[in-house]
Amino acid sequence: MFKSSNPAMKENSFATLHEQDFASSGKMTIAGTVNKTAILLVLAVITGSVSWSMIHNNPATGIPLIIGGFVGGLIFAIITIFSKKTAFVTAPAYALCEGLLLGAASYVYNAQSQGIAIQAAMLTFGVFAVMLVIYRLGIIQVTQNFRIGITAAIGGICLVYMMSLIMGMFGASVPLLHDTGPLGIGISLFIVAIAALSLCMDFDFIENAAAAGSPKYLEWYGAFGLMVTIVWLYLEILRLLSKLYRR
């Protein structure tokens, strides 16, 4: 139980807690996790708007914002994963950094195709809502085989992105990954589908953790894990729409 493809949502995230944690902090609830996820989203929107405005006024700030947001988000994500009790501080910090990254990336994509950012945001929340309904209705069962399949797919995607990053340093690129042809679009659709399916695993993980009476401070941790997936989903939808517009 308590497994997820999300690196922030591992089986031992809740299994290694001490009994005093339950007594001192109260119990985790789904409603509490939802509220904290909403807070993280609001924080990301705030810094995203600031980032967008900064680039609009000074395009030279684009690269520093993207790099700073990515590095800062990565640092706070690692801290959160290894120090769950600090999530009430590090999760909001992660959201603020990701907002800088998302705002800058959205501005760049939107400059190429007007309106693409708002479309990506609407599709992201639309997919989120649909996957939540599908999960709640039991249409998708988060079985062990389902977890293994999605985890393997995510691992493969991460390897491809790492290869793309390394090859990009030498002026090369992974074939078809950035292509606007049918195969390139098909790859993006596949990645979006995997990101969407991983939401079901996150829902299942949070639901089971709350049912097990995990300590309340882990609501921030659960919200952080869900935020990681939402950020990934948004960026992949943004990339997919960009390919479609460039055809």
The portion of residues assigned to helices is: over 70%
Number of strands: 0
Q: How much of the sequence is in beta strands?
A: under 5%
Oligomeric assembly: single chain
Low-confidence stretches: none
Could you give the order of the helices and strands?
HHHHHHHHH
Largest sheet: none
Shape: globular
Helix/strand/pairing class, anyone? Answer: mainly alpha
Distance between the termini: 44 Å
Mean pLDDT: 89
Rg, nearest Å: 18 Å
Total helical segments: 9
What keywords describe this structure?
247 residues, 0% strand, mainly alpha
Describe this protein's structure:
- The chain has helices spanning about 10-15, 20-25, 30-55, 60-80, 85-110, 115-135, 145-170, 180-210, 220-245.
- With about 250 residues, it is mostly helical.
- The chain is globular.
- The mean pLDDT is about 90.
Detail the topology: elements first, then pairings.
Elements: H1 12-15, H2 19-25, H3 30-57, H4 62-82, H5 87-112, H6 116-137, H7 144-168, H8 182-211, H9 218-246
Helix pairs in contact: 3-5, 3-9, 4-5, 5-9, 6-8, 6-9, 7-8, 8-9
Short summary:
This protein is mainly alpha-helical and 247 residues long. Helices cover 78% and strands 0% of the residues.
